[in-house]
Amino acid sequence: MNNWQELEHKYFVQTGVRVPVTLVKGQGARAWDDEGKEYLDFVGGWAVNSLGHCHPVVAEATTEQAHTLVQTSNQFYTVPQLQLAELLVQNSCLDRIYVCNSGAEANEGAVKLARRYGKLKLNGAYEVITAMNSFHGRTLAMTAATGQPKFQEPYLPLPLGFINVEYNSIEAIKAATTNQTCAVMLEPIEAEGGVIIPDDKYLAAVRTWCNQKGILLILDEIQTGIGRTGTLFAYEQYDIEPDIMTLAKGLGSGVPIGAFMAKDEVCVFAPGEHGSTFGGNCLTCATAYATVKYIIDNDIAGNAKKVGSYFMSKLEGLKKKFDFITDVRGRGLLIAVEFNSDIGQEVLMACLEGGLLVNRLKPNALRFIPPLIIGNQEVDEAVGILDKVLSNIGN
Ligand SMILES: Cc1ncc(COP(=O)(O)O)c(C=O)c1O
Predict the structure, then answer these.
(1) Cβ pair 265, 112 in contact under 8 A
(2) Which of 165, 225, 232, 235 could in theory staple to 172 by disulfide, Cβ–Cβ 3.0 to 4.6 A?
(3) Whether residue 102 has its Cβ less than 6 Å from ligand 1
C-alpha cells in the first residue's frame, strides 16, 4: 500500500493543516480510513456533506448526469442549471441566481455585482463593509473582506475597498458608512470565526440602515445556508431579506458548487460583465438540484433544528460535568464547544482515536458540522466518545 501521507509531504504544496488519517470511503455519517477503521464523521467535509457521504439521491443524480452531459460552457442553455435556478428562486426571497464553483467565487461575484450597482446607481460607490472575525474565502479580495489579521497579514497589500468593523455592532456599521459605501456583507452567524451568533435584532438593524442609505445587504450564507441552521436559509430566522445572498458548501452535498442570488432590481450586470468556464456545469448542477430538492421535500432543515437542539442539550450536560468547558453555542447543526485552555488539538486527536471526526475551530474550541441527516442515535454516539475523551483529559 502507498504511504499516502508521505506522498502528500513530498508532492503537495504545504498549505493544509491535516490530521494523520487518510479517508478512502464514506457512507452517510460514517467514513473509513485506508486501514479499515470506521469513524463517525462530524466534520462533514467542512459543513459540505449536507446529505452525508454517497447519499443514494446524490449518487444517482451524479451518475446519471455523468452518463448524459457534463460540460458545455455557458455559450449554451443547459437543463440542470435552470432546474436548480428555478428551485432556489422559488424557495428563497431572491429573484435570480448565478452559479459558480466555490464559496469564495460566489462572494467575489456578489461583491462585483454590488460594485457594479455602486457604479451605476450610487455615484461610483465601491466600498463594502464587512465584519471582524468573519470568513469569506481565500481569494485576494475575499482575504481583504475576511476581517482576520492572521489571513490578511501574509498577503499585504490587499485589494482596496473593504472596511472591517466590529461584528454585532450596528453603530460600527453606521460609523463606517460613507458616500463611497455600496454594500454591507455579513454572515448571519460567524462560522469559521468561532460560531458567533449575533443579537436577535442586529441583522434587522443592519437591514434598516442599508434601506435608509440605499446601500445593499449581502448575506454570506455559504456555511449557514441549505438547512444547516434549522431553516433553508438563516435569514428566515431574522425576519429580513438580503439584496444578495451567497451559497456554496452544502448546496451540492459534496460536489464543488457555489452561487450568488439577488433581487431583480440589483441584477445590473450586462451580458459579458461576469462569467466562468465551469460555473453552472451540468454535473454539479444536477447533483445540487437533487440535493436541494431532497432537503426541501424531506424537511432536512427541520431535522437539523431538532437534532441540533438535542445535541446542544447533550453538550450542555457535558458542560455541567466538565468545568473546563466554558461555552456551548450554535444553531441547528452548526455547533461549537469552547474550553478554558488550548486543548482543542488534544481533544481532536483523542476523538480520532475513539472513532469520531471533529473540527478544531480555534486552539481552545471544537466545531461540529455533521451531515444534516443524522439522528439522535449518532449524537448519542458522538457525545459518548467525547465524554470518554474529556474524562481522560480531566484526570
Ligand atoms: C461563510 C463562508 N464564506 C465563504 C467561505 C469560502 O468558501 P470556499 O472555501 O468554498 O471558497 C467559507 C468557507 O469556509 C465560509 O464559511
Answers:
(1) no
(2) 165
(3) yes
Active site residue 220: yes
Catalytic annotation present for 249: yes
pLDDT tens-place string over residues 65-98 = 999 999 999 999 999 999 999 999 999 999 999 9
- Amino acid occupying residue 95: D
Give the single-character DSSP code of 253: B
Which 3 state secondary structure label does DSSP give 178?
coil
For the CA atoms of 300, 305, 307, 309, the dihedral, rounded to the nearest 10 degrees, stands at 180
Q: 311-328: buried (b, 16+ CB within 10 Å) or exposed (e) per residue?
A: bbebbeebbeebeebeeb
Residue owning grid cell 474550541: 365
Q: What is the pLDDT of residue 78?
A: 98
Residue located nearest, by CA, to atom 7 of ligand 1: 103
- The residue assigned the cell 486543548 is 343
Grid cell, residue 47, equals 459543513
Residue 130 CA to ligand 1 centre (angstroms): 14
22 touches 352 (CB < 8 A): no
Amino acid found at 211: N
Q: Which residues pair with 220 in a beta bridge?
A: 246
| Nearest alpha carbon to residue 245 among 266, 231, 230, 268 | 266
Our answer on whether the CB atom of 222 is closer than 6 Å to any ligand 1 atom is yes
Question: What backbone torsions phi and psi does residue 6 show, to the nearest 5 degrees?
Answer: -65, -40
> Ligand 1: does its nearest atom lie under 6 Å from the Cβ of 233?
no
Selecting among 220, 243, 311, 339, the annotated active-site residue is: 220
Note whether 267 and 335 are within 8 A (CB).
Answer: no
Judge whether 76 counts as a catalytic residue. Answer: no
Q: What is the pLDDT of residues 233-255, one digit of tens each?
A: 999 999 999 999 999 999 999 99
- Our answer on whether the CB atom of 246 is closer than 6 Å to any ligand 1 atom is no
Up-side HSE of residue 322: CA atoms within 13 Å toward CB?
26
> Phi and psi for 36 in degrees, rounded to 5?
85, 5
- Separation of 2 CA from ligand 1 center, angstroms? 32
